[in-house]
Design a protein that fits this description.
single chain; ADP-ribosylation fold; 3-stranded antiparallel β-sheet; about 35% strand
Length: about 110
């Protein structure tokens, strides 16, 4: 299954350089939260609008293969109160990311 993570391009590039991506969400590290916040495709636009209301122009969407994450022994849990979101309980390995899509807003619509 495909899961998604919206982030700044510079944060992803720093993770690539380091060998693992360890940003949980906007201005939060994996160490802060204990997991990396993700979304399912149908949740991505609403998540981006909620987390990035200032609509920065340097966002990307990491397309992550959940099966690869699990195959590497890292837990992915669906968690939330009113809606369930996938959370990756470990650093994201670049090999799990099948695509990095540029993202942008057109009006109120988040495109990725």
């Amino acid at each position: 299954m495909t899961i998604l993570h919206v982030t700044r391009a510079s944060d992803w590039e720093a993770g690539l350089a380091a060998g693992t991506y360890e940003i949980s969400g906007r201005d939060l590290s994996l160490a802060d939260e204990g997991f990396v916040h993700c979304s399912y495709p149908h949740q991505c636009a609403a998540t981006a609008a909620r987390i990035w209301p200032d609509r920065p122009d340097d966002l990307v969407v990491l397309v992550i293969d959940e099966d690869q994450v699990r195959a590497d022994g890292v837990e992915v849990l669906d968690e939330g109160t009113s809606e369930l979101f996938p959370h990756i309980y470990g650093a994201v390995r670049p090999a799990w990311v099948s695509e990095v899509r540029p993202a942008r807003w057109e009006g109120d619509t988040f495109l990725w």
